[in-house]
Amino acid sequence: MQNGSPLWKFSGEGCFFSFKIMEINVFCTMNIPLHCNAFADYELLDCGAQYKLERFGDYVLSRPEPQAIWSVSQSEDEWMKKTHIHFERDKASPEKGLWSKKKPMPDQWKVNHLYKNMNLVFRLGTTSFKHIGLFPEQAENWNYIFDNVIALKSRLQQVKVLNLFAYTGGASLAAKAAGADVVHVDSVKQVVSWSKENMELSGLAGIRWVVEDALKFVKREEKRGSIYQGIILDPPAYGRGPDGEKWVIDQHLDEMLGHCNRLLDNTNGFLILNLYSMGYSPIIAQTLVKMHFPNAANLAFGEMYFEDTFKKQMPLGIYVRFANS
Q: Domains in the chain, ordered, with CATH?
């Protein structure tokens, strides 16, 4: 305290505070839990006992969810009566398992995401890793991408968007639907093929597909002097590139964001970082982003979550996003 002034002072709800000894160092970034309710073809029916009961279109799935450590709200009989297909973990390999059909349903089916004049179509299918080709909580980010690209297109002739660790392409489709030139990067060829199928189902065309290690790609783009108006990152905890490159999020994410800083348009750019790795907090994520983008405007961060039909809130990862425009 100097001259009777307090060491700290309140500067508004939702702000993040940092302090130095004998010096105030306060910056305000909005910590906003993101209630994911934008996807009409998805519904979280119940969650608990490390499982979740979900409706994707016309079909109900029961699959593991390690963060659902509370009790379920329905009896096992009620749960299973609603279930079309159930994922049973492999005891020898917790990351894998087998799907068991409880009611007739196709091996593949489609769902839609509608927002304004965007209509995205996704082909879903079961995999041995419990995933089905879609993370429905990301619909909130797809809408954010669509709105930001539309806004940028109103004043820029070309809007380029880079989607890294792009999986089956929801973010790529949203950017393309808004009129962006999109580069979609993923190291798994089969996943990129799945993304192409989703693009065609959505009535879109012209996305550039890159099967490559994401870190290697951004390094090359930086050398080329490429600039993007939007960058989306959805990095896994661990991964392998097509040529055996090793990705470890604890070792490589900071470096990756440094390259993204040099690829993103400083005045007309937006960025989204999603993290699903256990042990990462929203504050860790926003600190990483603020370190590399100190002038980020309209920055928001927090947990993404769904609320089930019994009002239980199920966290589903972390997001940080900002738009300088």
A: 1-31 (no CATH), 42-101 (2.60.40.1180), 108-324 (3.40.50.150)
